[in-house]
Structures are given as structure tokens and as C-alpha cells.
Design a protein that fits this description.
Helices cover 36% and strands 15% of the residues. It has an 8-stranded parallel beta sheet with strand order 2-1-8-7-6-5-4-3. It is globular and about 45 Å long. The chain has 214 residues and is an alpha/beta fold. Bound molecules: SN-glycerol-3-phosphate (G3P).
Length: 214
């Protein structure tokens, strides 16, 4: 998987109603425009059903939201890494609080972790990124940078002690440019964000706001 330059903003579309059907492509195009206008790398994670359609239509990095750890073949209904790759994904989220995998199923990806200790644990697999996301803050309005800044600095330090190749993102409740600036200040390489962009009345304005201090 190619590495995103610092800082990186990863927008996870989840399965919110706003991105059903054409909504996924529209939001991906907005992310692409904002990335072009600001020069900041923005990656998107559309749902599996829209993955190929989105990946064919935009030039920014496209990730899947999860993959199932199986090879190609007789695998009904599973989203295998080879399917995701050929649909145009350059990587995947893994182990999101809303889609946990066992240790043995985690590969080289963006791996989500809910504590600094868990972040250091999954860093041993040397994924591209570990994203620290306290589950209780996901989808809310209190940013992880405000509620628990220490968990970010600790994750950065603990992950660095495991491997200098692994980047740390943080997420949950990220809604403003100040939250993103604070995340970078605390040592994160970027943020993983969902509702602050996907559910915004004006997603482009919301994304531009997130990037304004970078
Ligand atoms: O995958 C990102 C996510 O879980 C954070 O969600 O809505 O708090 O930005 P949100």
C-alpha cells in the first residue's frame, strides 16, 4: 500500500444515509476538489458497494472500510483483499470499533485501536497507520484531542517504540480545524474522520474547515 504524505486526512463514509447511491461519489469528488485546492492529501473510505465506482472516478487515495482475510476463490459474500485491490482500493481500514477482527486477521493496513496499549499491540504487525479511536467518542461532538489528549501522545510514543515505520492517526469526534491542528500538535500524522464531513450540511465547507490550520 502506498503511504500518504503528512498530514493525512482519511474520511470514512461508513454506511451513513448521506452516502447511499450517488452520495458516495459526490462526497468523494468534494474530497478530491478540496485536496486539489488545498494541496493536502485526503483519502476516502466508501462502502464496498460503491468502491469500484468511486475508485474509477477520482484520483485521490481510496481505501475500503474493511476486508475479510481470505484468498480469492469460492468465498460467497466476503470482501477479499484481492477483490478490494482490483476494485481500485490502495488499502483498507481494519479493526474499526464498529468492525473488529481478531489479531490473526490483521494485516498491513490502517488499523484502528481504542487505547495506546492496543495501538502499540497492533503496531507490531507494521500496518501503514494505527488510528487511535476511543469508541465512546465516535460519532459525538467531543474530540479525542480535547477529551483525552494524553491518549494521543502516549499512542505516538508507544507506537514509535514498537516501529518507526508506523504512522499514528487519531479519530473520534473530530469536527473542527482546531481539532485537527491539535491532533498534529500532539504528534499524530493526521486524522480519521467520519460524521464531521459525511453528515455535515456542507461537506466541502466542513472539510475545508478541518484543513484550514494545516
Ligand atoms: O472511522 C472514523 C470514525 O470512527 C470517527 O467517527 O464520526 O467521530 O468522526 P467520527
Amino acid at each position: 500500500m502506498s503511504r500518504l504524505s503528512k498530514p493525512a486526512v482519511v474520511v470514512n463514509f461508513k454506511s451513513y444515509s448521506e452516502i447511499h447511491g450517488h452520495g458516495a461519489l459526490e462526497l468523494a469528488q468534494i474530497c478530491e476538489q478540496v485536496s486539489e485546492e488545498t494541496g493536502i492529501r485526503v483519502a476516502v473510505c466508501p462502502p464496498t458497494a460503491e468502491l469500484a465506482y468511486v475508485a474509477r472516478s477520482v484520483k485521490i487515495p481510496v481505501f475500503t472500510q474493511s476486508v475479510d482475510p481470505y484468498p480469492e476463490g469460492a468465498r460467497t459474500g466476503w470482501n477479499t483483499p484481492s477483490l478490494a485491490r482490483t476494485a481500485g482500493a490502495i488499502g483498507t481500514l481494519v479493526n474499526h470499533a464498529e468492525h473488529r477482527l481478531s489479531d490473526g486477521e490483521i494485516g498491513k493496513t490502517v488499523v484502528c485501536a481504542d487505547t495506546p496499549r492496543a495501538a502499540a499491540g497492533v503496531a507490531t504487525f507494521e500496518p501503514t497507520y494505527v488510528a487511535l479511536e476511543p469508541p465512546e467518542l465516535i460519532g459525538g461532538d467531543i474530540s479525542v484531542t480535547k477529551a483525552n489528549p494524553r491518549s494521543i501522545t502516549e499512542s505516538v510514543e508507544m507506537v514509535r517504540n514498537v516501529s518507526s515505520k508506523v504512522g499514528v492517526l487519531c479519530g473520534a469526534g473530530i469536527k473542527t480545524g482546531l481539532d485537527v491542528a491539535n491532533a498534529i500538535e500532539l504528534g499524530a500524522m493526521g486524522v480519521l474522520v467520519a460524521s464531521g464531513v459525511v453528515r455535515a450540511v456542507d461537506p466541502k465547507g466542513a472539510l475545508l474547515d478541518l484543513l484550514k490550520h494545516l
